[in-house]
Amino acid sequence: MKTLILLGGGHAHLAVLKQLQKGTPEGWRVQLLSPSKYQTYSGMLPGWIAGHYSLSDCQIDLQRLCQSAHVEFIIDQAASIDADHCNVSLNSQATLTYDLLSIDIGGESDVSHLALAADKLIPIRPLDYFIQKWGEIVNQLEQGRALRIAVVGGGAAGIELALAMQYFRQNLKLPLEIDFICSSRGILPGFTQAVRGRAQQAMLNNGIRQHQAIAKGIEGGLLLSNGVRIAADFIVAAPGVRAPLCLSGSKLALNKRGFIALNDAQQSISHPNVFAAGDVGSRSVEHEKSGVHAVRAGPVLAKNLFDMMQGRSSLVHYTPKRTTLYLLATGPKHAIASWGNFSADGYWVWLWKRWIDLNFIKKCRN
């Protein structure tokens, strides 16, 4: 009996599980490893913080999906990978051997510049830890404790989280202060000026204190490159993504930043029996690391894994679209749309985003 290991319960592996519900190729068994029973859909997390959704609205039960697909579900994490010997060592000290491996574990938050404030630090990855810590913050606020949160990161995640927290504070009249810190490049680098302007206006309308400087963690909070010190009870870090530590020493070909080097079929360029999707991978023509690409690559990954299990050598390619739709929640029932040079904002954009998000969850659950 040969073994396919699905390492991680990311967006692309959901498509693989849906395909496996139709049956597993003869002579194969499939195992899925995840540190949590649930996959929390990150696109809905700001909506949960703002109070528009319950946590269960945003989650997909991986264990139930695995049962319906006759996949063995293992709650654990990879400590290391040895691609030359086809094995994965787990945090539990167990070792699994595979014939075919697919990796969809995302990246890790690069918080090295904030390490001196580790006792206050809440990186947005892993999501389970962030969710746990946000619950603790809410409990403290509901008990009447005044808190100050610094949100570090000028990308979409940092902006959405800061606006969601501010809306949560305003809606429930809680004793919470929020500082938002981004680099000298400003907010949403890489987006059009129109989108950046809409996001900036949303920040101003919601009264969020903004600082444009490099942040460094210190005892008690942050020291900015302009000399300003920010006291904080918690530091929510939404920085860039770095490669997972388990890839170091894996023998897999990696790019300069440590992500898995892939061809257009989502296949490792060094080990043909290893595939990957989502933030953990890198292709010769880079695209923005976004859940959109993981979702779209899912059906391609599923087909290629099935073809490999059935001994077929021809693989299909995933071609990212040149223009990607981004829908950014701004706290209240309002969102910003970005599509190439087109941008818009309003309640109708929020309804559009809500429809897309809830349909994604529904499709994955059914």
UniProtKB/TrEMBL annotation:
One of its GO terms (biological process) is aerobic electron transport chain. InterPro entries: FAD/NAD-bd_sf, FAD/NAD-binding_dom, NADH-Q_oxidoreductase, Pyridine_nucleo_diS_OxRdtase_N. Keywords: FAD, Flavoprotein, Oxidoreductase. It holds the Pfam family Pyr_redox_2. Residues 4-286 form the FAD/NAD(P)-binding domain. GO terms for molecular function: NAD(P)H dehydrogenase (quinone) activity. Gene3D superfamilies: 3.50.50.100. Its cofactor is FAD. This is Pyridine nucleotide-disulfide oxidoreductase. It comes from Iodobacter ciconiae. The lineage of its organism: Bacteria, Pseudomonadati, Pseudomonadota, Betaproteobacteria, Neisseriales.
